[in-house]
Amino acid sequence: MASNSGPKSLNRSQNNGSSNNNSINSDKQVIHFTSSSKNSSGHPPVRSKPNSAKRSVTPNSRAANPNNNDDSEPARVRVAVRVRPRDAEDLNSEADYADCVELQPELKRLKLRKNNWNADSYKFDEVFTDSASQRRVYEVVAKPVVESVINGYNGTIMAYGQTGTGKTYTMGRLGKHDPSERGIMVRSLEDILANTSPTLDTVEISYLQLYLESIQDLLAPEKNNIPIAEDPKTGEVSLPGAAVVKIRDLDQFLQLVQIGESNRHAANTKMNTESSRSHAILMVYIQRSSLGKADTDSPRDRDSKRNTGNAMNTLHKSKLLIVDLAGSERIAKSGAEGHMLEETKFINLSLTSLGKCINALAENSSHIPTRDSKLTRMLRDSFGGSARTSLIITIGPSARHHAETSSTIMFGQRAMKVVNMLKLKEEFDYESLCRKLENQVDYLIAENERQQKMREDDKEEIEKKLVEYRNSFAEVENSLDARCQLFENENKHLVSENQRLLDELKLQKDRNDVMHDQVARLEMSLKQSKQNQLEGSSYQKMLVDTTQMYEKKIAELMEQIEDEHSQIERAQDQLAKVKQMLSDHQKSKELQGKQEIDDLKEKLQKMCQVHNKTVNDFQSLKTENVELVSEKAMLSEDLQKLNQKLSVEEKQRKHMEDEFYKLKKMVTERGNDNEDKSSIMKENNGKVHPGYGNSLSLSRSFQQREAIPRVSKIFEEVGLEKTIAMLKSQDLDVQIHAVKAVANLAAEDSNQEKIVEEGGLDALLMLLGSSDNTTIHRVASGAIANLAMSEKNQGLIMSKGGAHLLANIASKTDDAQTLRMVAGAIANLCGNQKLHASLKEDGAIKALLGMGGSGNSDVIAQIARGMANFAKCESRGTVQGYRKGRSLLFEDGALAWLIDNCAINSSSTRRHIELALCHLAQNDDNAPDFVSSGSVKELVRISSESTREDIRNLAKKTLKLNPMFQSEMVC
């Protein structure tokens, strides 16, 4: 006879939440889940939620510590009851009352009759009548579990009941001819395939049966007595050697289930014409890529996001167990004998072990007997573990089976008292991240080569233009030489003509002194003109470049010189006429000669002006020539600088390529090492499917511990200086990994000074001010909290505006982990009395108290530690005499906050609050605030009820030494 107890057992949940940052002192919390008896309505109460915070949104915060269960969520096992229709034997029963079950589905209750006048009432999560459809049963019992599995959680759906009450019909009905009759197994796979992408996600199944305490593979019958493997570190149970088949569509799944059902053991008994003689377990393994809001996106949207590169590079791995248990039966009723009798014994034995585990969990026993049966070992995650579990119990209405029906109902009632802790299994998709980095590097290399080609083309074009300029310069220079030679010849001719004219004028010197003086001035003017022309010719030889405009100017000068020649000729003619006139009419026309000489003087002055203009033009040409020469020198210098810049950029490009190949080689070597370890473990343990075998489970557990720090270790091997430089990268992923590496290094005291010297502190503060990424805010704040433990670094952080940045981050985020890091950093700064005024001015104290509104216990613990540090420093300054006046904390409402949180559950947090109050009370200037706010009563309580003797003594001493407190106590 089967035991009246029920489903599977697993390890009971205990969460040990601990801080993942070395600089923040937070107490560990152990969470216990206790069960209680049924309430007056017959419905077992739900266990209270733990005080620990909700799970973090960042994948690495889970994977960094496999034992950290801060992301767990409690979920009670949900139980539904289904009554099968009455059959012919039930109708022909001769019992005093035909049915022993009375249903109240609207109240989710059923009554179990003991006789015609007495009945017991029981409440379940759902009650199904004999007319309930297969679809409704699936949507109420199984669909919430299937949706949870698709989102990354483990799940279990199980049917339990007496033989012949419809368990296999509810769970495994294929419904090939009538889709409305499909059971939970087919409908679950239909939903899973509809909500996963065939290109990005993987859906695989194993179909097993537990027959005579031996695990057999229904998809590969030759595999018998499959061993159960358990990871000693994670407690994960796996079946190495079981066949695992990847599912493409629903038709393939239906074929596989039909094959499995044909291999399952069944027999004809008095209770059921086709009674299952084994427990059937369908195991569905799902691996999904997490892309943005992957939980709500359709597969087509997720494919589109992956193609556009907007992936989060994380994987969700989950497992769904669909269990069709063999029915419990009485040997006398089933008529089993011989081999069938042995089958019945093993079935009842495994169900009895399952019932013991349920009883132990329901009664909060310290020992859970999971190893009494292979069934309980395989299902250890379903009851008291981390899976979301739904149980449907099936019963018959006939009073003939009252004892079995009562046993089944009590099994369900005890199962409803079991609470599981749901965990999301999420890890980085490093292969996708590596491919993304490789694509980015390939793009940068191609872009660099394209720019290099453009620079080479520009260089060739500049060289061609330089050759053209040189040729043009040579041509112009030759042309100028020829022109200058022509000017020199003409000047010589002018000189000879001027000399002849002077000779003629000297003949008139004796006759007219005035004419002599004029001729002398003319000679001096002509000599000056000659000198100017000679200077102009020397300047012309220095010209480097010319244009048509210059040729035009030179032509104009030539015309002017020709005009001068004509004027000189006219002057010679006039002089000749003057000579003749002087010889013929010297006396009679002396006055007329003077007038003509005056005219000649005016003409000579005009010639002088023309010569001066010519000299000015030559001077301007000389200036332009100098400018052209300097411009040529500047072009040559720019060309040389451009060549140097190109060579430097080429060296930088090669250096970047070398660094990338080194980084890629290190990632590849680590990937190869993990693959080698996995392959060796596979050879030692036999054929194992990836992700679910024993050997690879051990490898995955190792990788889970090492996966997150792997990229950070690579950055550390590259070097601290280069790692800090990568904090300024434009790539968000590179920034995140770099800041994690710096945070890991900052956790060691020996590295902190090097980090500050290399500019790591400046880079971290820059990230806090410029980045909007939550992960960067959290990790950078944690690194600053580590650095802030050194008094030397505390001053640097304040001088660079670190407290102001931390206060801004606290006002912008509601992430509990980020707030905890920020609060820890400010709490460390509060331990330096020299910084108190600056912390107050930068708003850090106000921000620290404001973070208490988050309600997170870890954040409140850091706030209390900061208050204790601040108050302790003030108290020391007051006692030593270099500080006076009311506490700076009171202006931001610190006293009220401390009083409101005195009754907090955490012993370490309460100790910090009590210590802060005692130190604040030692300052006599703070006494009026204590009296007006009623805080003296809290000091009295601390002096008698505090768990720490040193705090009690400090409170007693403070109350005794302050008269104002004494008078308040008397009142």
Automatic annotation (TrEMBL):
Belongs to the TRAFAC class myosin-kinesin ATPase superfamily. Kinesin family. Ungrouped subfamily. It comes from the Eukaryota. PANTHER family: KINESIN-LIKE PROTEIN KIF11, KINESIN-LIKE PROTEIN KIN-UC ISOFORM X1. PROSITE patterns: ARM_REPEAT, KINESIN_MOTOR_1, KINESIN_MOTOR_2. This is Kinesin-like protein. Residues 434-511, 547-588, 625-659 form a coiled coil. One of its GO terms (biological process) is mitotic spindle assembly. GO terms for molecular function: ATP binding; microtubule binding; plus-end-directed microtubule motor activity. Residues 9-26 have a biased composition (Low complexity). ATP binds at residues 161-168. Residues 32-42, 49-69 have a biased composition (Polar residues). It is found in: Cytoplasm, Cytoskeleton. Residues 294-306, 671-686 have a biased composition (Basic and acidic residues). Its main location: cytoplasm. The keyword Coiled coil applies. SUPFAM superfamilies: ARM repeat (SSF48371), P-loop containing nucleoside triphosphate hydrolases (SSF52540). SMART domains: ARM, KISc. Keywords: ATP-binding, Coiled coil, Cytoplasm, Cytoskeleton, Microtubule, Motor protein, Nucleotide-binding, Repeat. Residues 76-418 form the Kinesin motor domain. Residues 1-77, 291-311, 671-693 are annotated as: Disordered. ARM repeats lie at residues 718-760, 759-802. GO terms for cellular component: mitotic spindle; spindle microtubule.
